[in-house]
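User: quick one, fold this
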Amino acid sequence: MSQRKELNVAAIQQACSPDKATSLATTERLVRQAAADGAELVVLQELHATHYFCQTEDTQVFELAEPIPGPTTERLAGLARELGIVLVGSVFERRMNGVYHNTAVVLERDGSLAGIYRKMHIPDDPGFYEKFYFTPGDATFNNGNSGFTPIQTSAGKLGVLVCWDQWYPEAARLMALAGAELLIYPTAIGWDMSDTDDERQRQLEAWITVQRGHAVANNLPVIAPNRIGTEPDPSGQSDGIRFWGNSFICGPQGEFLSRGNDSDETILACTLDMARSESVRRIWPYLRDRRIDAYGDLTRRVRD
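Assistant:
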């Protein structure tokens, strides 16, 4: 585990544009401000360079994909190097013709690529047709290890996951067992415009609660940036998605340290006590008391 005592972190909550240059200009402005305010680790949203294009299935969208390294990672790497920060970004990755990923990239303070994480759980729901675009992640950039492997950086061992992964306790646990010091969830999630107010509140509270639960169950801080704004359905078959923001950072007992609202561009910033996870684990030793001898059926689809 890291010997750091404190870490200044920031999460960026922004609206996105269908134009990459416009979105990335906004991102760069906010990252520069976060770094000027003392952030050492800055986390961006899922697929922050464009609108969330998975509302429809359209083969022309694959033209947005980029290799790694590529234009977006090079721009983010230059920003990380100039500002001396660790930066977590997101790319629609073109791995090869016909194989594309939803990929988080982690850039070190010197601009080098510390590692990538390819989204493991891929949804396929109305308005979120990600299986059409993304191949599930694998272990290629983790030296043959599990896809759920933390990325070592000067800011600590980062347990980077992506959006739909945030609903799965197994993903958070495997990151924790591999020594992650933070759980990070770049996100793009929002409401169907036809949802009732009550349904919207239930969905939002579920999203927040499950991630705070991962913090509690693994005694780790969580950073979860989500976009804002209403983005139209390009096909016109629905009224689009209103992204609900509410980005947050919480501590290892699920306590809120910083939280955004549902509509404003925000830089969430706080100082994490990196020694707190160890002290919490000494009085809440969940990892010690796990009954690993009794969990074999977790690898089965169902227990029938």
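User: anything notable?
Assistant: The longest strand covers residues 86-96.
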